[in-house]
Structures are given as structure tokens and as C-alpha cells.
Design goal:
It contains three helices and six strands; from the N terminus they run αββααββββ. The chain has about 120 residues and is of the alpha+beta class. The radius of gyration is 16 Å and the shape is elongated.
Length: about 120
């Protein structure tokens, strides 16, 4: 997530912890490989685990919207990443991504904070 790297530059981060939080009931933050088909594999897996059909008791919104409310069991609304010398200490292929299959709400807010240490 380029926004995370830009935020760390903006606050002149050195060593510490970056916290990423999305205050929405149907979205999560994940560390995942993006590209090379991995992102499509992730979405396919979510569709198998949380099909958008009428099995869900939570029924307002688009068909299958109840599945969106189960997503936080798999993808938490926040995560913390170590920061070393102002850069996120992620693996070579790891990226921070917003996971949000809820098409009913196209606008999302992501809160970023940094704790030096």
C-alpha cells in the first residue's frame, strides 16, 4: 500500500510500529502477495469460503452481503507492521492491502498511525 510508505515519509519515521486500521464492519487489512495471480487466487478462495448467496441470515444490502460481515473472522480490521529505518519490514513479495468485497460501500477510510520505538 503506497499510502503506508508515503505516511511513513510524511511523519519522518525511523524505527517503530506502523498500525493500519479500517473502521468498517465488512473490510479487513491483510499482508499478502499481490500480482502474479496471487490476488485473483485470494479473491477466488474468498468466494469459495464466503459465497455470496442466500445462506446468510444478515440480509440487507446486495445479495450475499451477509458474507461480508463474516470477513473480519479471516481478515482483521487492523494490523501492525514493524518499521526499520523508516521502511516497513515486509518480506520481498509482501504488500499491505485492503480486503473489501462489499460493493455496497465503495468509500473506505483507512487510519494510519506510527509509534516510534
Amino acid at each position: 500500500m503506497e499510502a503506508c510508505a508515503a505516511f511513513l515519509r510524511e511523519v519522518a519515521a525511523a524505527d517503530g510500529l506502523l498500525n493500519v486500521f479500517v473502521p468498517h464492519a465488512t473490510a479487513g487489512i491483510v499482508v499478502v502477495e499481490l500480482g502474479a495471480g496471487s490476488d485473483v487466487d485470494l479473491l477466488d478462495a474468498l468466494e469459495r469460503l464466503l459465497p455470496r448467496d442466500d445462506r446468510w441470515r444478515h440480509r440487507h444490502g446486495s445479495p450475499g452481503h451477509g458474507a461480508d460481515h463474516v470477513l473480519p473472522l479471516l481478515a482483521a480490521p487492523s494490523l501492525t507492521v514493524p518499521v526499520v529505518d523508516g521502511r516497513m519490514a515486509l518480506g520481498t513479495w509482501q504488500s499491505i492491502a485492503l480486503l473489501d468485497p462489499n460493493a455496497d460501500n465503495p468509500r473506505r477510510t483507512v487510519h494510519l498511525s506510527f509509534m516510534a520505538g
